[in-house]
Amino acid sequence: MAQLLYGHEARLLSVTRMRLDVFNKLLNWLQEHGGLKDTKLLSAAEKLVIFLMIFSNNASYKLLSEVTQHSSATIHW
Amino acid sequence: MLPYRAVYEVLPGLLKLYKEVVRLPKNVTLEEIAEDPKRYPFFADCIGALDGTYLPISIKGGYTKQAPWRGRKGGLTQNVLMAVDFQMNFMYVLAGWEGTAHDSRVINSAKVKGFEALPGKYYVADAGYSNTPMTLTPYRGVRYHLREQAQVNMRP
């Protein structure tokens, strides 16, 4: 996940179809106005990446757990 | 609904973006219409187009719960109403109606939920809708696009 958020911009673009600056703007807006919060198991940024991967690439939860390196029970319950 | 935690937590906030991002056109004729002599005097008050589409879904639960979603397109579907402007930007989306619901049913529901056009402005829609102050539909029983059909040697 850190590789996506802090690595080369093209990686986030290919995974979420969203540029890094747009992603950060959206993340800030959602945290200020949309009630999106960090929780114990998932940060707000991770939640947004997971959300975008589902809706842009139809990602399966097995793939999501691989990319985020979380247990599939954290992503899908 | 998808049993993804992230979807439950991100989606409600994302829906609030609608009021931030979507700006419906002001009370002027759109450039795309004003600059086109085919369109200008006739469609001066048009602000976009709308139509319904069926999106495949899956339903948790037994067959009894699935019945209303099994519409005329086959499989389990939602009837989704969408309105777009001339750049194909979405202006309005109403998702969630059962696949058995007809387009007119969905747009009436959208109006109840606050979908509107400025007074005197309208969307163009296909024959599944009715002529109302906010939707303009084709004339019934008129054959359109005769010249285009003739070019490809087809009868309308």
Q: What report would you give on this structure?
A:
The complex is a heterodimer of chains A (77) and B (156). Helices cover 69% and strands 0% of the residues of chain A. By secondary structure, chain A is mainly alpha-helical. The mean pLDDT of chain A is 89. With 156 residues, chain B is of the alpha/beta class. Chain B has one domain (22-151). Helices cover 26% and strands 21% of the residues of chain B. Chain B has helices at residues 5-15, 17-21, 31-34, 63-66, 103-112, 146-151, and strands at 46-56, 77-84, 90-98, 122-124, 135-136. In chain B, a hairpin with a 5-residue loop joins β2 and β3. The mean pLDDT of chain B is 86.
Short description:
The complex is a heterodimer of chains A (77) and B (156). With 77 residues, chain A is mostly helical. In chain A, 69% of the residues lie in helices and 0% in strands.
Give the oligomer, counting copies of the same chain as homo and different chains as hetero: heterodimer
Mean pLDDT of chain B comes to 86
Number of separate helices of chain B:
6
**Helix and strand sequence of chain B:** HHHEHEEHEEH
Number of strands of chain A: 0
Question: Looking at the structure, what is the overall shape of chain B?
Answer: globular
Give the low-pLDDT segments of chain B: none
Structural class of chain A: mainly alpha
> Which sheet architecture does the biggest sheet of chain B show?
5 strands, mixed
The count of helical stretches of chain A stands at 6
> What is the average of the pLDDT values of chain A?
89
Main pleated-sheet profile of chain A: none
* Strand count of chain B: 5
Structural class by secondary-structure content of chain B: alpha/beta
Radius of gyration of chain B: 19 Å
Order of helices and strands of chain A: HHHHHH
